[in-house]
């Protein structure tokens, strides 16, 4: 009897040891996954660059003036629109689902008005070993929508603008909402250079009852054209510093160049961005634009995007 009791005690001890080992292995395996989803409460539509041109520049967009997509980065950058500007984009990926963007802006004397929508439809739970929104890798009905409305006033070379923004996340019928605002300033010296400054998500999410995080993001950037952008050649550079609440400073530098003849041509671009927190995301992104008169077809490629997957995005810009 004592032998049997001793054997049972030994078995229990071995089971306990194996449980401790299994728990340690589980923690070691799941730690990187938890690190990737630590910002789960920050909407994805606030983390992906809505503009394809800005995506090619690794997220730099505060000083890119004259495009409808500026409503998402710096409302004051709408000030150089001549009459009307339109922008649309689409991305489809294995885990990201469908990411689409639409923006419109028009000029009324010294004022500019702009509206933008950024929509993310999750086809399934993304990410290795678990979902971005749910812990199990099972199909879920989930989506996010960002809506932005901007008003800009321009006097001389200086423009000031503000945006109201609304975010909603729907997961299996459960909705969470966020409300905030952006303020921006732009100084555009004709088509030669531009300086942009913006504070996004001022004071975070204004709805205290929502768990969605809308961290404040401060941007300052400078864009320079080295040749006449109305001529045959294109050569531009942009630099930008970003300060997100609770994170270290991020620095982005990018450039683009190409040839356009009689309104038709190709412009290539790339962007390099520092990584202020441990991440596997690519430091360099690529892009290109096919110029067809008043319409530009943009392409951007990220070797390792938010979901640690290579992604390609395509968009169209129209300015008249």
Characteristics:
single chain; 320 residues; mainly beta; Porin; globular; disordered N terminus
Summarize the structure.
This protein has 320 residues and is mainly beta. The protein has helices at 2-36, 52-56; strands spanning 84-93, 97-108, 111-122, 142-155, 158-171, 174-189, 193-200, 217-225, 233-244, 250-261, 264-273, 284-292, 295-302, 311-319. It has a 14-stranded antiparallel β-barrel.
Low-confidence stretches: 1-39, 125-136
User: Which range does the strand content fall in?
Assistant: over 45%
Tell me, what's the shape?
A: globular
Q: What is the name of the CATH superfamily of the largest domain?
A: Outer membrane protein transport protein (OMPP1/FadL/TodX)
Strand order, largest beta sheet: 1-2-3-4-5-6-7-8-9-10-11-12-13-14
The gyration radius over C-alpha positions equals 23 Å
What is the count of β-strands?
14
Instruction: Summarize model confidence as the mean pLDDT.
Output: 84
Describe the overall structure:
By secondary structure, this protein is mostly beta strands. The protein folds into 2 domains: 1-36; 41-319, Outer membrane protein transport protein (OMPP1/FadL/TodX) (Porin). It is 12% helix and 48% strand. It contains 2 helices and 14 strands; from the N terminus they run H-H-E-E-E-E-E-E-E-E-E-E-E-E-E-E. The longest helix has 35 residues, at 2-36. The termini are far apart. 37% of the residues are buried.
